[in-house]
Design a protein that fits this description.
By secondary structure, the chain is of the alpha/beta class. It folds into two domains: about 260 residues, HAD superfamily/HAD-like (Rossmann fold, 3-Layer(aba) Sandwich); about 50 residues. The protein has eleven helices and seven strands. Strands 1-4-3-2-5-6-7 form a seven-stranded parallel beta sheet, sandwiched between helices. The radius of gyration is 25 Å and the shape is elongated. The two termini are about 40 Å apart. The protein binds magnesium ion. The site of magnesium ion has 7 residues, from loops.
Length: about 325
């Protein structure tokens, strides 16, 4: 499928959750690409495919990454949909145009593997898009979903973007990241592993970086379409095995922690049970305060404090029950 526009809907986000968190046998690395001002110039709300212009060196840089064995996956926040500036169909049209321009420039089809976009925004003017969402960068949801869809090895993958939130999403997914910026003070971009002035330079950084130690490496462009076959021939010494196991265990734990965090976000931090517990907690504090006001009258003081203690126990019971649901 050529540069398939990704789902940015509740249907897609519903695929998050326990049971679908792990990435089965990741076999291929990817470079996740921010869209606006990384691939195309866009400081506004671009919904017209006729306005799409690739930035200098983008097509050539993407071809170098592809030839080095990386899958190319665009991950982009599209809050303009939430603000009613354009529609999801417009986003798809823009992505088709980007894919076509890249393919035309390099003389081959399907260089970009997929586009993922998030149309949600917490302050949306369009009600149906008004929410935070695990796919919205700096959350790593789009990268995690792509990893599941395409069996991406996140530890071997990179993100290129021009905003700190891009870098944060990449790092949260377990990737290395290159921030495109003219600001060379890397101390201001603590999440980025590398800084580059352009996509061309970012590609140089990636292709010259030492590989992360594991049994998986970018496939050669001559390896054909069978990624599994190409990865099975990668060198893997017994000396690497303990380090690999620890690294994979750490990545799995990071992915699990991130899944739990995203799941909580989707369900909402304040469930009805939590709200009830909060109200009882306030009541317990009120009773305790009333008890303290009658400190000189032992009987009344004990009366109020026992009440406060009983309600406090109820609060603890409610919170324990909620945490184990
Ligand atoms: Mg950008």
């Amino acid at each position: 499928m050529r540069a398939a526009p990704a789902l940015g809907t509740d249907n897609a986000s519903a695929r998050f959750g326990p049971g679908c968190g792990s990435i089965p046998n990741p076999v291929q690395p990817a470079v996740f690409l921010d869209r606006d001002n990384t691939l195309i110039a866009n400081d506004g709300d671009l919904g017209d495919p006729n306005q799409v212009r690739l930035m200098d060196g983008v097509a050539e840089g993407l071809k170098r990454l592809h030839d080095a064995g990386y899958r190319l996956i665009v991950v982009t926040n599209q809050g303009g949909v939430a603000r009613g500036k354009y529609t999801e169909d417009d986003v798809d049209a823009v992505h088709q145009k980007i894919a076509a321009l890249v393919d035309e420039a390099v003389g081959r089809d399907g260089l970009i593997d997929r586009f993922y976009y998030c149309p949600y925004h917490p302050q949306a003017t369009v009600a149906e898009y008004r929410r935070d969402h695990p796919w919205r960068k700096p959350h790593p949801g789009m990268l995690l979903q792509a990893a599941r869809d395409l069996r991406i090895d996140l530890a071997q993958s990179w993100l290129i973007g021009d905003q700190d939130r891009d870098v944060q999403a990449g790092r949260a997914a377990g990737c290395r990241a290159v921030l495109i910026t003219s600001d060379e003070d890397s101390s201001e971009h603590g999440g980025a592993t590398e800084i580059a002035e352009s996509l061309h330079d970012a590609v140089d950084v990636i292709l010259n970086a030492p590989p992360v130690r594991s049994g998986h490496h970018p496939r050669s462009s001559n390896d054909g379409e069978d990624d599994t076959m190409s990865m099975s021939t990668a060198s893997h010494s017994p000396r690497d095995a303990p380090g690999d196991a620890l690294r994979q265990m750490r990545q799995s734990m990071q992915e699990l922690a991130e899944e739990i965090r995203l799941e909580r976000m989707q369900r909402g931090e304040f469930t009805p049970l939590t709200m009830i517990a909060v109200m009882f907690q306030l009541l317990a504090l009120l009773l305790a305060l009333l008890g303290l006001l009658q400190l000189g009258q032992t009987g009344a003081f004990l009366h109020w404090m026992v009440g406060a203690g009983l309600i406090q126990m109820l609060v603890i019971t409610l919170l324990l029950f909620e945490s184990r649901r």
